[in-house]
Write a sequence for this structure.
């Protein structure tokens, strides 16, 4: 086979020195139908752009002459220690980005000691991810097609040794993603003349994928070997009653993902979830939703300081991670950047990307005068109005102390 799934160490200097580089290289190397499936979002993709641009609007306060020579990025989340407050979000059909993507992400998770979450709609099985990622593996559950099927997946995850389960609740129905509709993306693939030409123009991806087997949702395979996955099926089975039953049945850590409402967050907290995952699904569901980062502070205020909050949507570098922590998150997950890195350079691209994030987070800590990632608070953010008022107060006090001329 062309792809070496075990090797996540770059053989040469990586061209992935930022998530933007990963995206640019992936766009060149992946077929258009695959790249658009990964990058695309709901509707006109306003929400996806807003998630990104709102991070750019946020500013950090640089501080000087603090003792930041030795910095600590390690943190604890729901009883598990990680080497930095970063993980890999659940994403369906990752092996479309590059063959063996799930295994590469699992190995990177162990190398960097961070969580990797397998989607129900993954192109690898629940059992395989558990064997690859060990204690770093989390499982994400969609309740689609039937409650019984969802309960069977939960039982499989428990048998495989998963300790953390994520229930995704923001996909009652998969939204219309215009890029996919225009490209004729479907599951399973239906290859017409247009798709054939797209694949032919990207021979590296196409040949490697063919040699390793066309990806399919592995956790929905029927006894006859065909796929039982219906991408268009309603996933509205994840209702409040199901959450109560799941909490009673699942003895491990339970996270609820896709929360954007403070009221919903409080109710989820009262039903015994161990963490709340604030996310707009990367803008892939409701195009008119506010930026996820703008929703985070209100949810933090509603659930109090003791409730662990996980965050994703729009994160592209280490400074974004620190901004999310400053606004109330305890932990941050990335999605698209990891798949872009795989599309750019395969498994070695993921290693390069995670090295970028680790260095960016550490450097950002130094610039804002902090030595420990757990010491990041809202004080790290620059607020033009309040910070200007503070400056005026200091100048006024100084004038009073020295006398005015």
């Amino acid at each position: 086979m062309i792809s070496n799934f075990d090797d996540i160490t770059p053989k040469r200097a990586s061209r992935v020195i930022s998530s933007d580089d990963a995206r640019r290289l992936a766009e060149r190397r992946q077929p258009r139908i695959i790249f658009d499936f990964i990058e695309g979002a709901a509707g006109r993709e306003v929400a996806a752009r807003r998630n990104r641009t709102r991070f750019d609007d946020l500013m950090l306060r640089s501080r000087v002459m603090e003792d930041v020579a030795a910095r600590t990025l390690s943190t604890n989340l729901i009883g598990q220690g990680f080497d930095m407050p970063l993980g890999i979000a659940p994403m369906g059909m990752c092996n479309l980005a590059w063959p063996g993507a799930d295994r590469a992400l699992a190995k990177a998770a162990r190398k960097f000691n961070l969580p990797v979450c397998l989607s129900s709609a993954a192109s690898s099985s629940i059992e395989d991810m558990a064997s690859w990622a060990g204690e770093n593996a989390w499982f994400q559950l969609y309740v689609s097609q039937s409650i019984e099927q969802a309960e069977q997946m939960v039982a499989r995850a428990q048998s495989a040794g998963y300790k953390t389960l994520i229930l995704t609740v923001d996909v009652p129905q998969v939204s219309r993603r215009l890029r996919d509709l225009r490209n004729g993306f479907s599951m399973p693939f239906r290859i017409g003349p247009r798709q054939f030409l797209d694949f032919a123009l990207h021979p590296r991806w196409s040949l490697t994928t063919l040699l390793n087997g066309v990806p399919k949702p592995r956790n929905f395979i029927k006894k006859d070997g065909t796929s039982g996955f219906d991408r268009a099926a309603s996933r509205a089975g994840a209702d409040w009653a199901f959450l109560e039953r799941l909490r009673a049945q699942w003895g491990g850590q339970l996270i609820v993902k896709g929360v954007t409402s403070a009221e919903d967050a409080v109710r989820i907290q009262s039903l015994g979830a161990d963490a709340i995952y604030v996310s707009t699904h990367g803008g892939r569901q409701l195009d008119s939703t506010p930026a996820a980062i703008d929703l985070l502070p209100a949810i933090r205020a509603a659930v109090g300081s003791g409730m662990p909050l996980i965050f994703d949507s729009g994160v592209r570098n280490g400074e974004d991670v620190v901004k999310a922590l400053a606004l109330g998150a305890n932990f941050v997950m990335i999605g698209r950047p990891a798949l872009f890195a795989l599309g750019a350079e395969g498994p070695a691209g993921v290693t390069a990307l995670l090295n970028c994030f680790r260095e960016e987070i550490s450097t950002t800590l130094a610039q804002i005068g902090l030595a420990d990632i757990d010491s990041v608070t809202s004080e790290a953010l620059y607020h033009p109005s309040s910070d200007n008022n503070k400056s005026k107060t200091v100048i006024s006090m100084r004038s009073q102390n020295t006398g005015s001329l």
